[in-house]
Amino acid sequence: MTQTTAATVTETADDIAAREFLAFTLGKEEYGIHILKVQELRGYEEPTRIANAPDFIKGVVNLRGIIVPIVDMRIKFHLGTPTYDQFTVVIILNINGRVVGMVVDSVSDVITLTPDQVKPAPEMGTALNTDYLIGLGTVDQRMLILVDIDKLMSSSEMGLIDSVAA
């Protein structure tokens, strides 16, 4: 008779959290990012524009003494002209110790996905380079485009963002 320990039966909180995604919308598409990357959610406020910054960097805001660059994901993904209303949300992210704000159309909920609910991203000419994708998550009739936010905020872009925040 084999004996199982509680450690082999139960999952750690980190294992569960690693499969939790914050769902948000950009246009008609629904995206998801790992919940552990999210520091907080804020309503949209007009950032202070920085000269010579790329279009997708809307500017910076002062968040409790920290200068936070704000990236508009609609502009970044070439999804048309962004509009800002009461549903527009800034997701404050902590990426490798850097704080960055990400403007999205709206945030819906936190979704837990099992490994079998995540499928590899198909290779196709989309606005979003598939290098930035973890895969596609499916829950009932919903499909989430799961974004690897660490890769998306790549070193060259983080350099641009850092120079704006400095």
UniProtKB/TrEMBL annotation:
GO BP field: chemotaxis; signal transduction
Keywords, ordered alphabetically: Cytoplasm
Statement: the UniProt record of this protein carries the keyword Nucleus: no
CDD domains: CheW
One protein family per Pfam: CheW
UniProt entry tagged with the keyword Cytoplasm: yes
Compartments (UniProt record): Cytoplasm
The CheW-like domain, residue ranges: 18-158
SMART domains listed in its UniProt record: CheW
InterPro entries to which the protein is assigned, alphabetical: CheW (IPR039315), CheW-like_dom_sf (IPR036061), CheW-lke_dom (IPR002545)
GO cellular component terms given for this protein: cytosol
Top-level division of the source organism's lineage: Bacteria
SUPFAM superfamilies the UniProt entry points to: CheW-like
Name of the protein described by the UniProt record: Chemotaxis protein CheW
